[in-house]
Specification:
Blueprint (H helix, E strand, L loop, with lengths): L2 E5 L4 E2 L2 E2 L2 H26 L5 H30 L3 E5 L1 E4 H18 L3 E5 L6 E4 L1 H18 L4 E10 L2 E8 L31 H11 L3 E6 L5 E8 L1 E2 L15 E5 L3 H13 L3 E5 L2 H4 L8 E5 L17 E5 L7 H6 L4 E4 L4 H12 L23 E5 L3 H13 L3 E5 L2 H10 L4 E5 L7 H10 L6 E5 L4 H9 L4 E4 L4 H11 L20
Parallel strand pairs: 6-8, 13-14, 13-15, 15-16, 16-17, 18-19, 18-20, 20-21, 21-22
Antiparallel strand pairs: 1-4, 2-3, 5-7, 7-12, 8-9, 9-11, 10-11
């Protein structure tokens, strides 16, 4: 796998350089207790609380997430200064990258009443790039946009801008950045507005600029056409040839109407429809959209059009799909019963949009119901057996609770030796493995179970968030990597990836009288 490096000066504390190993230790020591605080706050929010108690818990969680963000930025900035930035280029699909960033930040955006979406004219493009570093730049840009935007939303985009060059953009409807601050904003510990000095470390954009320079690229910010700001990153990337000749655009020649009060939803939907070959027609409301469309056109209507959370009424003479946020999944059945052909979850996925628009055009008798979006499934892994290997009682309680909510049966091992004993006598669909155990590290535990012929998928659960930590886990025989604090969405995705095999596929090991669990 090709790689390249970039030299930068190392940080010093009291005249001494901080090593990468010391930074990893600091990361673990800071993030482990923070994981417990944030995890318990999230669980507490899901219980029956008074309005006053809910306000207290929300403030506690917001403060914890702010502190975690500061820790991440400070440690990452110090780490980038501890030596060379090594880039590991690999095939990186543009669509998957933009979608992952949007869906990761979607819960935070929706909590603020914002929309976050993505679109690219060349959705099938695959670039040779360091996917983790490219994602880090976009997360810094988009996270900043969500933080400082009060209404509207954030839109991610990517497009080729010349021979061998690509530009990634993050547009927002926030306050914008003054001309005087546009150079200063990418300096370490700088803020574009002194009133923002208590809202962040001022390192996120400096990190983005260092990473861009390592990729032989550049970053910048400019005014958005309708207010707000557009942060951009541009660099040379090799575009890989398509594996197969492109087929006909799925929505070629079809007109699709979009009604939403949010300009970000309208723009993103229009771009996605165009990328599928369709002709988008957008409006801020249903009444304005109807004269622009006909009975043969499918309409995408945003649930946000309903005043006070009321249900949106479907036009009687044309097929329609309702647009919902993931947390609004309880409304799907009501909309289906009122005549809607189906739903789409925001941020919109291009393939789902095309599939459901085509399904809506079919007659009710011929239509095969579309599969539910995996972001609204009631349980990600009902009946799956999971071995949780975690010695920290707070983090173990959080993981066990989240796993149980996803339908899993959970056994808990406190040490590496207990995990090996449990795997020797029983069958599991997944192992969640903490990396710092009191007897043998998670990597060594995984090596031993692989040497014993146990093929159960193993997902690392760790407070160490650096790229080399992930690579060490993969080298030890693990299958995936989750960073503490463990989030419900990240866990759901991992369960969906690794626990879908049937019980008949399980590999039974030799029996024993008893396995020890904590």
């Amino acid at each position: 796998m090709p790689s390249q490096t970039d030299d930068i000066d190392g940080p010093e504390v009291a005249g001494e350089h901080i090593s990468t190993g010391q930074l990893a230790a600091l990361s673990h020591e800071f993030r482990t207790p923070l994981s417990g605080v944030l995890g318990m706050a999230r669980l507490l929010e899901g219980t029956r609380l008074s309005a006053e108690q809910r306000a207290y818990v929300s403030a506690m969680r917001d403060s914890g997430e702010h502190l975690l963000g500061l820790v991440n930025e400070l440690l990452d900035f110090a780490r980038l200064g501890a030596g060379k930035i090594e880039l590991r280029d690999a095939p990186t699909p543009v669509e998957a990258l933009l979608r992952a960033v949007c869906e990761l930040l979607s819960p935070r955006a929706h909590e603020k009443g914002l929309e976050i979406a993505w679109a690219s004219p060349d959705v099938a493009a695959v670039l040779m790039a360091d996917e983790s570093r490219l994602r880090q730049i976009l997360l810094n840009f988009a996270g900043n946009a969500v933080k400082f935007t009060a209404s509207g939303g954030v839109l991610l985009g990517a497009a080729p801008v010349g021979a061998g060059r690509w530009r990634f953009t993050v547009s927002d409807t926030g306050p914008g950045v003054s001309q005087a601050a546009r150079d200063l904003i990418f300096e370490a510990f700088a803020q574009s507005d002194p009133s923002h000095q208590l809202t962040g470390s001022g390192l996120g954009l400096a990190i983005a600029r260092r990473l861009a320079a390592a990729m032989k690229g550049e970053v910048g910010v400019e005014a958005a056409p309708d207010g707000g700001a557009v942060f951009w990153f541009e660099a040379p990337f090799e575009t890989l040839p398509a594996e197969a000749a492109p087929g006909p655009a799925p929505l070629s020649g079809l007109r699709v109407g979009v009604a939403s009060p949010n300009p970000v939803v309208r723009e993103a939907a229009a771009r996605q429809i165009s990328a599928c070959g369709g002709v988008p027609v957008v409006a801020g409301g249903v009444e304005a959209l109807l004269p622009l469309t006909g009975p043969q056109d499918v309409l995408l209507l945003d649930h946000a059009l309903g005043q006070g959370g009321r249900k949106v009424r479907r036009p009687f003479d044309r097929p329609a799909l309702i647009l919902l946020a993931p947390e609004e999944r309880d409304r799907i059945a009501r909309y289906r019963s009122s005549g809607f052909c189906g739903y789409l979850i925001k941020p919109l996925r291009r393939a789902s949009l095309a599939e459901r628009v085509l399904a809506a055009l079919q007659s009710a008798t011929d239509q095969t119901p579309a599969l539910d979006d995996d972001r609204v499934a009631p349980a990600a892994a009902p009946g799956a057996r999971v071995l949780l290997v975690e010695d920290n009682p707070v983090n173990a309680l959080l993981a066990r609770t989240l796993l149980t909510r996803e339908g899993c049966a959970v056994d808990h091992a406190l040490t590496g030796h207990e995990a090996l004993a449990a795997l020797k006598v029983g069958t599991y669909d997944l192992v969640l493995m903490d990396m710092r155990l009191p007897d043998i590290p998670g990597e060594e535990t995984t090596r031993r179970l692989r040497a014993a012929g146990i093929e159960t998928p193993v997902v690392a659960l760790t407070a160490n968030a650096f790229q080399e930590d992930k690579e060490a886990c993969m080298a030890a025989g693990m299958n995936d990597f989750l960073v503490k604090p463990l989030g419900a969405d990240a866990l759901r995705q991992a369960l969906s990836r690794w626990t879908r095999r049937s019980l008949t596929d399980a590999v039974w090991t030799e029996p024993s009288e008893r396995a020890k669990f904590g």
